[in-house]
């Protein structure tokens, strides 16, 4: 049941707030990558919205690529052991890589990914994430571009799902406990 009225608790970041912040991040990225042609790596599926919106706000010439990864581990918590479900199409040797994520929760997925992409000989590897749960971070991760630091709550929308639902919402909202309880 996709009842926006009762399934969602509170809108944490409105569509307007998200788009305004992404515009700021895009400007920052443009400044940092002047004269460069970075490969943007979106992490499927959550990052689809951020990649689409961020890249349209940027002027830097980019190459768009995607990876799909899956965290091994029990239950819903990621373990940091990652399996590649879909690898990059491009060779990133000597290239500037910008990983784009919807959210950093534990940071374990990204810390594995950064190590993996550096091992392929990328010249630089930086991270842009729309959201970061600061309290939930276990990995020591250097994140260059962050949209919003949010509380450690179950959030959906703007790419983020609960059982594959709610990804299409243009805003970020907390899920009412009765939905996942
Ligand atoms: C979510 C989210 C990040 C990752 C963050 O993806 O989109 O990719 O978890 O978790 P971490 O910081 O604890 O590693 P998920 O594995 O749910 O796949 P999805 O993007 O397809 O929803
Ligand atoms: Mn994801
Ligand atoms: Mg998910």
Task: Offer a concise description of the structure.
With 181 residues, this protein is of the alpha/beta class. 27% of the residues lie in helices and 31% in strands. Bound molecules: 1-O-pyrophosphono-5-O-phosphono-alpha-D-ribofuranose, manganese (II) ion and magnesium ion.
Overview of this protein structure:
It is a single chain. By secondary structure, the protein is α/β, with parallel strands linked by helices. It has 5 helices and 9 strands. It has helices at residues 4-7, 15-32, 48-57, 108-119, 177-180; strands at 8-13, 39-44, 63-71, 82-86, 96-104, 124-133, 145-150, 155-156, 172-175. The strands form 2 sheets. It has a 6-stranded mixed sheet with strand order 4-3-2-5-6-7. Helix 4 links the parallel strand 5 and strand 6 (124-133). Helix 2 (15-32) crosses helix 3 (48-57). The longest helix is centred in the first third of the chain and has 18 residues, at 15-32. The two termini are 15 Å apart. The model has no long low-confidence stretch (mean pLDDT 92). The structure holds 1-O-pyrophosphono-5-O-phosphono-alpha-D-ribofuranose, manganese (II) ion and magnesium ion. 1-O-pyrophosphono-5-O-phosphono-alpha-D-ribofuranose binds next to strand 2, strand 5 and helix 4. Magnesium ion binds next to loops.
Contiguous uncertain segments of 5+ residues = none
DSSP summary: helix tally = 5
The overall strand count is: 9
Cα distance spanning the termini: 15 Å
Mean pLDDT over all positions: 92
Provide the succession of SSEs: HEHEHEEEHEEEEH
Radius of gyration: 16 Å
The helicity comes to 25-40%
The biggest beta sheet is recorded as: 6 strands, mixed
Strand order of the largest sheet: 4-3-2-5-6-7
**Overall SS class:** alpha/beta
Overall body shape: globular
Q: How much strand? A: 25-35%
């Amino acid at each position: 049941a996709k009842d926006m009225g009762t399934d969602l608790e509170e809108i944490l970041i409105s569509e307007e707030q998200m788009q305004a912040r992404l515009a700021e991040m895009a400007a920052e990225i443009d400044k940092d990558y002047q004269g460069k042609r970075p490969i943007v790596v979106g992490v499927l599926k959550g990052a689809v919205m951020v990649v689409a919106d961020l890249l349209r706000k940027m002027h830097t010439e980019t190459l768009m690529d995607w990876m799909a990864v899956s965290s091994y581990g029990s239950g819903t918590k990621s373990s940091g052991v990652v399996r590649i479900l879909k690898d990059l199409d491009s060779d990133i040797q000597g290239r500037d890589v910008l990983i784009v994520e919807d959210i950093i929760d534990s940071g374990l997925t990204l810390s594995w990914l950064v190590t993996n992409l550096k091992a392929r000989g990328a010249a630089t590897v930086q991270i842009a994430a729309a959201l970061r749960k600061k309290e939930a971070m276990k990995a020591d991760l250097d994140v260059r571009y962050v949209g919003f630091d949010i509380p450690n709550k179950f959030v959906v929308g703007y790419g983020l799902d609960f059982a594959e639902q709610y990804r299409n919402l243009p805003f970020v909202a907390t899920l009412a406990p009765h939905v996942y309880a």
